[in-house]
Specification:
The complex is a heterodimer of chains A (370) and B (271).
Chain A (H helix, E strand, L loop, with lengths): L1 H17 L10 E7 L4 E9 L25 H15 L2 E5 L2 E3 L3 E4 L13 E9 L6 E6 L6 E7 L6 E5 L8 E2 L9 H16 L4 H13 L3 H23 L7 H21 L5 H25 L6 H31 L5 H26 L1
Parallel strand pairs in A: 1-8
Antiparallel strand pairs in A: 1-2, 2-6, 3-4, 3-7, 5-6, 7-10, 8-9
Helix pairs in contact in A: 3-8, 4-5, 4-6, 4-8, 4-9, 5-7, 6-7, 6-9
Chain B lengths: L2 H12 L7 E6 L9 E10 L2 E5 L6 E8 L2 E4 L10 E4 L4 E9 L2 E3 L3 H10 L3 H9 L9 E13 L15 E5 L12 E7 L2 E2 L4 E6 L7 E4 L5 E4 L5 E12 L8 E12 L9
Parallel strand pairs in B: 9-17
Antiparallel strand pairs in B: 1-2, 2-3, 2-6, 4-5, 4-7, 7-9, 8-9, 10-11, 11-12, 11-15, 13-14, 13-16, 16-17
The chains are: A alpha+beta (370), B mainly beta (271).
């Protein structure tokens, strides 16, 4: 008697320790999807074995498209393979209506994978990457076990999205949050061209003044072209090198030096109307500094992992377009009407450059102190 | 019942397995301020721990807040968690009442009989044996009859014994909010409005659900529980009857629950 009671007690302790919370009312196979920023996802199909219809899965096989199922060793497969097959063969995961085929694994329950043979719940996990540019997610499972709960969690969102899914029908489309799906190539091009452009126009007043300084030196095409080319080549080099982590210079050094570069080109405009040989070299050097400044901004904006180089190139091209636009506007408003006036240099270049130098100097002091 | 068999029965009660799931109401507060909003979570699980059940309009037969002013449906959208919420307009006791429609479930015979034992439904085991169905998988329809007793504005004990008309209903015969720890709490169990005798009624404290107390109802459908401590409690009972109106099922189970809080005694205040 005593021994029997001890055995009963032991059995009770084991049962109590298992502590599994299955929940028929949430659905015999309920689903929890998690989306991470950058596109990784995990979708768990949680099978409440206690409430499967008797004989569920007898004779079923796992669809080859789902194979191999991670953690499912031959011994386990013999025990729960048919059940898994019947439970998830009909699963269809789709982004924008296009089916995805993520790999599947059996999540080992507490007590290790072997415990899955008798666990009251089995969790089968589909893991993959959201395709670039995808906007919506749908889930369906062709197995007919009634209504179940689909819970969707998104990284950075406190509240989960929930919906009841009716038996084999497809879920309502879930609109993926911005930043979950990686951008498509065309989105990357548009986005980063735009980011580069707006970083100059209208946001980059310091870069605008520097470019105006370059423009004011001489109204002729050749000096403008030489300076712009030198500047572009230089900032392209440091933008790339900084983004790839080859060089790095603190913004506390770069930013005051950018202000100083503005002062320099503006002051030289007052001193000489000619393109000195060292001017091109200096503009190249300043271009190196501005490139590091662009890199600082770009790394704050972030670059998509899958489209790194296109994004970098487009940002740089956007910056370039911004600068050319500044020059084009300056040419149309100032150059075209006044370039042939005898007072062009006296009334426009000199006072304009002095004003630019003054602002540059102010920024320099501000950035040194800041 | 001898003392030894009673002890064995209690041990069996503690052995809750995954086949049977309780259902209860967890309001965001059992003692809300007047004017505040109470969220109503529906929870499915075991031993007073579970998973929230988002609102499923297709399963709700009734979901009301009942006070002296009458029964007001608790609003919410499909798939909401909490499943509903309402504003408390007046002080005093109120009952959150939830009744589900029926779901069908089928269990292998061993699992089914195990759960029958857990819930004190040995009479059903005997009936199955008598019919020669002991080895047959179950064909069961189940529904939920859940109540939660809350006290708004920290005052008022009238209405603790309100019968709201659930299929299977636990009715406290004293206000838990006036009980104090260790006091006797008589509870009646009504099935279709009539006292149900011989049913197992169990009570579990939220912060130590393994310390479950249980007793069977007497002829008046009454048990007297003595919750040993303050805190949030779940009282539950299951009743099962043969199905006569549906050839696809053999048994119909109704799961009653009642949640409330026994307030901790407040430190004596100077007069």
């Amino acid at each position: 008697m005593k021994r029997r009671r001890l055995a009963a007690l032991a059995a009770i302790l084991v049962l109590a320790a298992s502590g599994i919370l299955a929940a028929h009312e949430l659905g015999t196979i309920r689903v929890v999807a998690r989306f991470e920023k950058g596109g990784r996802y995990e979708i768990d199909a949680i099978v409440d074995r206690q409430h499967l219809p008797p004989g569920f899965g007898a004779g079923a096989r796992i669809d080859p498209r789902l194979e191999p199922i991670g953690n499912l060793d031959p011994a386990l497969r013999a025990r729960i393979g048919p059940l898994i097959g019947a439970a998830i063969d009909g699963v269809r995961i789709a982004f924008d209506g296009k089916p995805a085929r993520p790999p599947v694994s059996l999540v080992p329950p507490e007590g290790g994978a072997a415990a899955a043979a008798d666990a009251p719940e089995l969790t089968l996990r589909f893991s993959g990457e959201v395709p670039p540019g995808a906007r919506s997610f749908t889930w369906s499972n062709a197995v007919s076990l009634g209504t179940y709960m689909l819970t969707i969690r998104t990284e950075g969102e406190e509240a989960a999205a929930r919906q009841w899914v009716e038996g084999p029908a497809e879920s309502a489309p879930f609109t993926l949050h911005a930043g979950i799906a990686p951008m498509s190539r065309s989105e990357v091009v548009r986005t980063y061209l735009g980011l580069g452009f707006t970083h100059i126009l209208p946001k980059g007043t310091d870069h605008i003044l520097f470019v105006l300084g370059i423009f004011l030196l001489s109204i002729h095409l050749r000096p403008i072209l030489l300076q712009v080319t030198a500047f572009t080549v230089a900032h392209t080099i440091t933008l790339a090198l900084t983004i790839y982590g080859v060089v790095s210079l603190s913004p506390r050094i770069v930013e005051p030096l950018i202000a100083l570069s503005i002062v320099y080109v503006a002051v030289e405009n007052v001193v000489t109307p000619r393109l000195t040989p060292w001017r091109v070299a200096l503009v190249f050097g300043f271009g190196l500094l501005h490139g590091m400044g662009f890199a600082g901004v770009l790394s704050q904006l972030g670059l998509p992992r899958t489209e790194f180089l296109p994004a970098l190139l487009c940002f740089n091209a956007g910056v370039e377009l911004g600068q050319l636009t500044v020059i084009a506007i300056a040419f149309l408003l100032i150059g075209l009407p006044f370039r042939n006036r005898p007072w062009y240099r006296r009334r426009i270049v000199v006072p304009g450059s002095i004003a630019i130098a003054a602002v540059g100097l102010f920024w320099f002091v501000q950035r040194i102190l800041g | 019942m001898t003392r030894r068999s009673a002890a064995a029965a209690l041990l069996l009660l503690a052995a809750s397995t995954a086949a049977a799931h309780d259902f209860w109401i967890e309001p965001t507060g059992f003692r809300p301020e007047v004017g505040s909003t109470v969220g109503v979570r529906l929870v499915v699980g075991q031993r007073f721990r579970g998973e929230v059940l988002p609102r499923n309009p297709a399963m709700i037969a009734r979901f009301d807040f009942v006070t002296d002013a009458g029964a007001v449906p608790i609003p919410g959208k499909a798939a909401d968690d909490p499943a509903g919420s309402f504003r408390v307009d007046a002080p005093g006791l109120g009952v959150i009442a939830y009744r589900s429609l029926e779901s069908a479930v089928s269990l292998e015979a061993p699992k089914f009989e195990e759960y029958l034992k857990e819930e004190g439904l040995e009479s059903v085991i005997a009936a199955r044996a008598k019919r020669g169905e002991s080895a047959k998988p179950s064909r069961e329809l189940f529904s939920r009859s859940a109540k939660s007793l809350i006290q708004a504005g920290g005052a008022g004990d009238a209405g603790f014994d309100r019968v709201v008309g659930l299929t299977l209903e636990l009715v406290p015969e004293k206000s838990p909010y006036a009980l104090g720890a260790g006091g006797d709490l008589p509870v009646r169990l009504l099935f279709m409005g009539r006292p149900l005798a011989g049913a197992l009624v169990a009570a579990l404290p939220y912060d130590a659900p393994e310390n479950r107390i249980a007793a069977r109802t007497d002829r008046e459908g009454r048990v007297t529980l003595r919750p040993p401590k303050a805190g949030v409690w779940l009282v539950k009972a299951v009743h099962m009857v043969p199905v006569e109106d549906n050839p696809a099922a053999d048994w119909r189970s109704i799961w009653a629950s009642l949640t409330f809080e026994i307030p901790a005694p407040s430190p004596a205040r100077p007069e």
